[in-house]
Amino acid sequence: MRSNYEVRYLPIFLQDVSNVVTYITKRLKNSQAAKNLLDDLEKAIMERLPVCDSFEKYDSQIERDDPYYRIYVANYVVYYVVIHEDKKKIMEVRRFLYKGQNREKIINN
Fold first, then answer.
1. Which helix (H) or strand (E) segment is 47 a member of?
2. What's the order of all strands across the beta sheet hosting 6-9?
3. pLDDT digits 0-9 by tens, 4-57
4. How many Å apart are CA 16 and CA 40, to the nearest integer?
5. pTM to 2 decimal places
6. b/e for 36-75, b at 16 or more Cβ within 10 A?
7. Is the separation of the CB atoms in 78 and 70 below 8 Å?
8. If phi over 0 gives left and psi between -120 and 50 gives alpha, with beta otherwise, what is residue 50?
9. Range with the poorest average pLDDT among 21-30, 84-93, 96-105
10. Count of Cβ atoms closer than 10 Å to residue 101 Cβ
């Protein structure tokens, strides 16, 4: 499905992903699981992209100009916003956090 949205990844999202992949590869010594997670992550984002603003908004504790949305991927959660910038529509992917983390505290800082 073709999308009217472009995807933008924030550096902190890329760092989150790198940290998770490094942990799975080095600490858990499971490079295949890390590769599978990356594949699943990319697939989930690309599937969401054409309809990224048609999902339930994340009920944040703080007021935001651009509300967060979530995508669940295995034991992780992707947080993104939808931005209308000039004549562009952008799905800005901001965080990739483990479900066991205190996600509220992290994304509300």
1. helix 31-48
2. 6-9, 88-98, 76-85, 68-73
3. 899 999 999 999 999 999 999 999 999 999 999 999 999 999 999 999 999 888
4. 15
5. 0.90
6. ebeeebeebbeebbeebbeeeebeeeeeeeeebbbbebee
7. yes
8. alpha
9. 96-105
10. 13
Place of tokens 């472009």: 6
Q: Are 76 and 20 in contact (CB under 8 A)?
A: yes
Nearest CA among 53, 71, 89, 84 for reference residue 13: 71
Query: Phi and psi for 63 in degrees, rounded to 5?
Result: -75, 135
- Ranges of beta strands (E only) in the chain are 6-9, 68-73, 76-85, 88-98
